[in-house]
Amino acid sequence: MPITTEQIKDLRDQTGVSIMQCKKALEEAGGDPAKALVILRKKSGEIAAKRGDRTFGAGTVQAYVHSTGNVAAMVVLMCETDFVSGNEEFKSLARDIAMHVTALNPKFLSKEDITEQDRATAKEVFLNEIKDQLQNKPKEIQQQMQDKILEGKLATYFGEMVLLDQPFIKNTEMTIQAMIDSAVQKFGEKIAIARFSRFSAIER
What we know:
Blueprint: H1 5-15, H2 19-28, H3 33-50, E1 58-65, E2 71-79, H4 82-85, H5 88-104, H6 116-134, H7 139-159, E3 167-168, E4 171-175, H8 176-187, E5 192-200
């Protein structure tokens, strides 16, 4: 199947990677845009992993203030060189992440930031709910079902709170981590969120 300019442009708009990389992914996928997207994201993750041992030497601090003026967020996005940190697309990525933080209010940057106390508290709440749900089930299967349900509930609960695991608000097919991996592929440098803060005039 011939690869069209429109297909390449659409894929580039979705991923931000180079035209040549998009063309190559489409050729590898036999012209299937969905498969090409998977190929690019897989390669982004592999490239990001290879650059994991590099050191940060630059970065940008970007902020987003909601139109209401009541909520805002700041994000520190790190990279290796001033060349990338001064790039407008890199700054735009940081601003998009700040906008996402403003909207979804994540509590943790990564899964590693979830404390044992956080887990214990959530586990206690969910266990009480699950026991009520399973009280009429045979005792021999209660424990097995309880463990499985608890695992799923905890994964969902904390998944919604971890910034890197959240689907990007402007494109829910891509997580924040996938966006960063794509940026690593695009800029050729190690990139990571160092920290983020959200501010609200009215705490809820």
